[in-house]
Structure formats: C-alpha cells, structure tokens
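User: Earlier you gave me the apo prediction for this protein. Now I'd like the version with guanosine-5'-triphosphate bound, so I can compare the two side by side. Same sequence as before, with the ligand SMILES added.
Assistant: Got it. Here's the input I'm using:
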Amino acid sequence: VRTRDTIFALASGRPPAGIAVVRISGPLAHDALAQLTGRPVPRAARAVLRELRHPSTGAHIDHALVLCFTSPASFTGEHVVELHLHGGRATVAAALDALSALSGLRAAEAGEFTRRAFENGRIDLTQAEGLADLIAADTEAQRQLALSQADGHLHRLAERWADQLLRLLADAEAVLDFAEEEAEVGEASLSDRDDLAALAAEISGYLASAHVGERVREGFIVAVVGAPNAGKSTLLNKLVRRDAAIVSDVPGTTRDMIEAALDIGGLPFVLVDTAGLRQTADAIEAEGVRRALARARSADLVLHVFDQEIAGTPLGQPVVNKVDLTGSAPGERDGVLHISAESGAGLRALEDWLERWGRSAIQRTGAPLLSRPRQREALAACSGAIQEALEQSDPVLHAEALRLAVRALGRLTGKVDVEQLLDSIFSRFCIGK
Ligand SMILES: Nc1nc2c(ncn2[C@@H]2O[C@H](COP(=O)(O)OP(=O)(O)OP(=O)(O)O)[C@@H](O)[C@H]2O)c(=O)[nH]1
Ligand SMILES: [Mg+2]
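And here is the structure of the complex with guanosine-5'-triphosphate:
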C-alpha cells in the first residue's frame, strides 16, 4: 500500500437525507477521527456513537455513528473511516469543513476512492467498472450484470485463463529450450493443443454474449419509425409516461430524434422517436428523415407504426395504431401489434412483446458477463492470439502468440506487466538513444 494524501468526501447522495455518510481514506484517517472525537479510535469494523467537534474551535458538529477500517482490510486498502451523520446540508458542510481544517487531509477527486482500491490491488479494472455500473444501474438486468462484475466474476475467470495460458507458455518455452528431445515434446504439445483449443472455445462463448451485455448496460435501442401522423410520438409519450415528444396533428411534427429510457420487466430500453418518413421539399425535415432511416438501420429493434392499416413493407415489427378509430381489437394478431396510442389500448401487449423480445435476445447467447467495448476488445485480442497460437507450427511464433494472449488478459483486468510498461516507455525514445 502506497503512502499518500488522506482524502475525504461525502459518499452518500445529495443532502438533505436521513443520513449522510462521509468517507475518509488514507494514512491519517484514524488520526483525523481521533482529532474530531478527542478519543481513541474504536476497534475495526465496530460501529460506535461519538460526539464530533471541530478540531480548532471545539464547536459541536454532530452526534455520529462512526466506523473504522484498518489497512489493508478496507475498500481502498488504506485506513478508512466512515462518519454516519444526520443528513442535513449544514451538518454535512460543518463536518467537511472540520476535515479540511486538519493538515494532510484534502477533498477527494471523482472516483479517487475506487482508484485507490484498484491501485492497491483490492479490485481489478473489471470490478471497478462493475462498481461504476452498479451505481448507475436503473433496471434489474443492469443491476445483476453490474453486480456480477463488481463481485469479481469476470476477474476470476480472467485470472484462471491467464494461469492456464502461462502454464501453456511455460511448456512452449520448454520446447524452445529442449528442441532436441523431440519425441517427448511432441506428446506434451499435443495435449497442450487440446487444452488451448478448449480455452479458445470457452472464451468464444463469452465473446458471443458480449454484445448483449453491452446492450444491457446501455439499453436496447428501439427506433420508432413510420409515416407522419402515424402516432409515433404519442406512443413514445405513453410508454415513458411523460410528454417527452411534441404531439400534434400537423404531419412532420417530429424532426429531431428524441430518446427516452424505459424499464420493461427489468430490461432497459432506449426508445427513439423519429421524423415521419415521407418525401419532402423541406430541407430540415428531409434531414430528419435521413437520420430516422440511419437510426433504424443501427437500432437493435425497429417498431414501424402505421396509421390504421399497414401500407407498404414494414421496416421492422409492424404496429398498427389508432384502433379506436377503426374499431378493430387491440393486441397481437398474426405477428402484428394493434394498439391505440391515444387510449392506451393494446399497450400492455406491446410492452409484453418488447419484454419477450429482450429476454430472447439475452437467452440466445446466455447470460452476459462482459458489458463494455473495452472488455470485449481485450478479450477478442486474447482470443485472436490463441487462434494464432493454435495455427502456428513454428515454436517461436507459437510462444509469442501465447504471450500476446496473456497480455490481452492483462489489459482486461488492468494487470499490465512490467515488460509491457517498459516497452511503452522506451518505444517513445528515438532510435540510438
Ligand atoms: N384517434 C387517435 N389519434 C391518435 C392516436 N395516436 C395518435 N393520434 C393523433 O395523431 C396525430 C399525430 O400524432 P403524433 O404522435 O404527433 O404522430 P407522429 O407519428 O409522431 O407524427 P410526426 O412527428 O409528424 O411524424 C395527433 O393528432 C395525435 O393526437 C390514436 O391512437 N388514436
Ligand atoms: Mg412525432
């Protein structure tokens, strides 16, 4: 654990609230508590009530529940103190003010506690990302994915893969050293090849679900397209239960894309309302139509809304709107969703349909474990290097490919080896220096 500044920050949400938690981390954290209370610090992880006073004025700040953690057994790996204060704005301000008055303490920067946890080896990069996602999670699916990462599920897998690769690499290097004992080497490398192929297959499985994991993290993008006045904006507003988009009987009302997040059955969706599709002389509306079509192409799902009846070829899942005018029954029939965005008829069936669509997207690949392009790219690089190692008959190049695969895993977890650091430092020097 590196020695450095002691930092503090309000760790709970914006006051006022019932309770506010101020976290302190660093070598002086325990001293700081002793100065605020005028008493020795309590035993580790034992909650006690204490009077907090300003260290220089002696003014009473609050009656607080305090918790101490001792390095390295804490979230950051450093000494940590938590002050559970009454959550009023002035109380929190007084406590932060008292902490700033202590020398060697300063306010923490964004993410600094988690950064210290990472730098002190308490968590790896994927766990740090999982923690960030856990805080940002809006839906049940996002929470589960984030929690599995924060808990180190991906971290442990990556460590196991790295161990396996390092063992195979050691074998491959032994082959280089003792190339003359050919018979033995041949046998060993055959079973190694099987192990490597099995590892490649396992990693591909996780890579296949990476895309879904990214969708779960960001939300499935659902583009709502259709002719002007079909009722796209009305539908979006009804589904998100607020007036996100302007509705009017003037065709061509929506020109910019409007996005709104939606939780259906614990799955995250981002609905995108678009400009009505039609030929138009209006340059701005034409640009809106162009963007609508581009969005439809890149979306995970397209809902094509029709005004009372299907006209032309649907660009995605057909939704026939305004059943209140035609008198036809709301609900799903023959793969078509019939609704009245205005009255709300058939919307429950549409939501159920969306939920089923989302669940089947996840089930096709199995529960995802990766949730970010960064993670996918690192694992894809690892997988590519393993593939290369499998195809490589030259023992030197085979070992080099295995080394690359290990490094890619190092990028995934943030465990970058010294050799790689030196490479990146010295590669910036001019040749001849
Ligand atoms: N009767 C009836 N009218 C509807 C229904 N849904 C929408 N409308 C009306 O249809 C008109 C157009 O609705 P919008 O939601 O603005 O249609 P839009 O598809 O977003 O139109 P643009 O933005 O111009 O492409 C408005 O007057 C709505 O009140 C419906 O289910 N029933
Ligand atoms: Mg509209």
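For your comparison, keep in mind: The mean pLDDT is 92.
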